[in-house]
Amino acid sequence: MSDIDYELPDPSLKSIVTHDSLKWIFVGGKGGVGKTTSSSSISIQLALNNPDKQYLLISTDPAHNLSDAFGEKFNKDARKISGMNNLSCMEIDPTSTLQDLTQSNGDPSDPLQNMMGDITSSIPGIDEALSFMEVIKHIKKSQKKDGESNDIEYDTIIFDTAPTGHTLRFLQLPQTFSKLLAKFDEITSKFGGLLNNLGGGKQDIYAKVTELKELTKLINEQFTDPELTTFVVVCIAEFLSLYESERLIQELNEYGIDVNTIIINQLLFTQNDDPCKRCQSRSKVQNKYLDQMDELYEDFHLVKVPLVNTEVRGLEKLTKFSKFLVNPYIPGNSVDLD
Amino acid sequence: MVELTEAEKRKQLRERRAAKIKNGTSRLSKITGEHQGLEEVQPEEVKPADSIPDVLTSNTNVSNKKNNRISQSFDDPEVEDIAQYLASTRTKPSNFKGRTQLPHPNANEADEFTKALNQIIGNHQKDHSIDDADIPNPFGNGNQFDIFSQLLSGTGATGAGTNSLPDFSSLLQTGFTNGENLPGFGGDGDDFTYNQQLAEYNKSLNDKFKAQWLLFKLIFNFVLVLLFKLEENFILDSIYSKFGTSILFLKSFIAFEIIFTTIYALRLFKISDNFYNYDFQILTYLEFLPPNILPNSIKSKIRLAIRYFELVKFILFDISVVIVLNLLWNFVA
């Protein structure tokens, strides 16, 4: 197809909302650009447009905001959002997850066990590791035959991720684990019997490692399959955000993770006759970066979202806000969510 | 025109994006404003090498401050002929800040080295208040540092008596393993002082290593006991299995003890007896007993037994640490 026939990608999230095969959607970017609001809005639009499917919104950010965004409390167990039948939410909490693990395998009243739980929960990367465990759990659930599990099986899982660095570390985990497990595989194939004896003979270490290796490989394949996984980058029209977003996109490209949509948030769209000089000035700066983005990301779905007049909190406001993602905003239209 | 499916459109867009993202550095440069555009440089636009400085200096976007670096503020030093340093044995160049004088170019290699050593180590001789003339020199040259020069020149040790220094090749070996070359009590001269100081220095090094080793074993045993006591899974329960019974702990403890003791033994058996604090005076007294009273074979067996006992002490230390930790655990839990 020649460039003459090439049409610019639609500046909305419709491609994601109508993409039936997507299983994993990551929403990430620099801190404070509106990831939580965007991920919540994407989840709401998915749920509204596909009422027959089940969706799960997971927060992997240690500084969780989903409860604040929706105005109701979520925890490590997935729970449906009030007012939505097909959208659930969970916030991964490393401390309580580890406590559950230790208490299910030992004496709950043991003070040293709790201490070890506290220590382990502060290990760098523990949040990413636990999020990854969650992914593994869902993969395993989907592999089970019908009727074997009473839990809800989700068609698509949306991740409200931590700021860029943590998310990149999380996305590296499948590859890192694969390499680690390959090395472990070599060791267990030589010393499997000895390791089983040291393990007390209760569990077959080799079988467990093999299972984990297969799961990690599957996750790796799924994360790098653009028909199953996509990453939505959220940014604002400022230098730091743009620079970090570009580096994020390049890193994701190296990992083989598809990025086709960028949400540019908090845009002023100041009109020429607007008397506010500060707004004019800020808008001028934003327009400069918007022009750069239009040039850099001409093959991406660039969703330009206005800065609204109020905080976007609660299901009602998030639902109204989410419409900006699927219907491109026309400058001059109302941004009043009330 | 054939209508593309959604999947084909997505694939087409992906390919276009991938092709553009490959040019990552220039994209980032565009954002930071160092380049004017994203156009790739065509081969015919590459200028020849001798015009590159013109391109760089004519780039008005490059800050002038980058050219005014401190490293570029000074002229190159004047070229000086090294022969002027070698021609004079005593005079120093005006800007020469060396601490030693360079040897005469016509002196032989041994003399050069001797003189350099004199300059470096000469102060120590004075600190010890030992006059050169009072030191009995096994090599008979009247200067103790000629020992080194003769060793290096390969003459070896030719002195008489038990106080003669071993030759250089034996110094390279693992040391005075049988104690025969050690100066005994009442040994005279600076050789004995030197050897004594060498032994003390090595003992302090080995003591330090021993202390570090004990600390490492203490921490290791502490962690091992905790792990087995807590009986917990780590981050992924599918990877780690439960730890457990006292038999399992015993197996692990014995396995690690064997490994660590072997490592330490390999090191210990390479160290000379004189260079290690064994906490037994018997080793010193063994030297006084002539072979008529106590044969050398028995002496060497005694030394060996002491070394093994040193290893046993480490094992006893670990066992006591484990017992104490278990008692503490039972008290706290």
TrEMBL record, chain A:
The lineage of its organism: Eukaryota, Fungi, Dikarya, Ascomycota, Saccharomycotina. One of its GO terms (biological process) is tail-anchored membrane protein insertion into ER membrane. ATP binds at K30, G31, G32, V33, G34, K35, T36, T37, E238, N265. One of its GO terms (molecular function) is ATP binding. This is ArsA/GET3 Anion-transporting ATPase-like domain-containing protein. ATPase required for the post-translational delivery of tail-anchored (TA) proteins to the endoplasmic reticulum. Recognizes and selectively binds the transmembrane domain of TA proteins in the cytosol. This complex then targets to the endoplasmic reticulum by membrane-bound receptors GET1 and GET2, where the tail-anchored protein is released for insertion. This process is regulated by ATP binding and hydrolysis. ATP binding drives the homodimer towards the closed dimer state, facilitating recognition of newly synthesized TA membrane proteins. ATP hydrolysis is required for insertion. The active site is at D61. Pfam families: ArsA_ATPase. One of its GO terms (cellular component) is GET complex. Belongs to the arsA ATPase family. NCBIfam families: GET3_arsA_TRC40. Keywords: ATP-binding, Cytoplasm, Endoplasmic reticulum, Golgi apparatus, Hydrolase, Metal-binding, Nucleotide-binding, Transport, Zinc. Its main location: cytoplasm. InterPro entries: ArsA/GET3_ATPase-like, ATPase_ArsA/GET3, ATPase_ArsA/GET3_euk, P-loop_NTPase. Zn(2+) binds at C276, C279. Residues 23-326 form the ArsA/GET3 Anion-transporting ATPase-like domain. It is found in: Cytoplasm; Endoplasmic reticulum; Golgi apparatus. Homodimer. Component of the Golgi to ER traffic (GET) complex, which is composed of GET1, GET2 and GET3. Within the complex, GET1 and GET2 form a heterotetramer which is stabilized by phosphatidylinositol binding and which binds to the GET3 homodimer. Interacts with the chloride channel protein GEF1.
From TrEMBL, chain B:
Residues 32-48 have a biased composition (Basic and acidic residues). Residues 16-72 are annotated as: Disordered. The keyword Nucleotidyltransferase does not apply. One of its GO terms (biological process) is retrograde vesicle-mediated transport, Golgi to endoplasmic reticulum. Pfam families: GET2. It comes from the Eukaryota. Coiled coil: none annotated. The chain crosses the membrane at residues 211-228, 248-266, 311-332. Keywords: Membrane, Transmembrane, Transmembrane helix. This is Golgi to ER traffic protein 2.
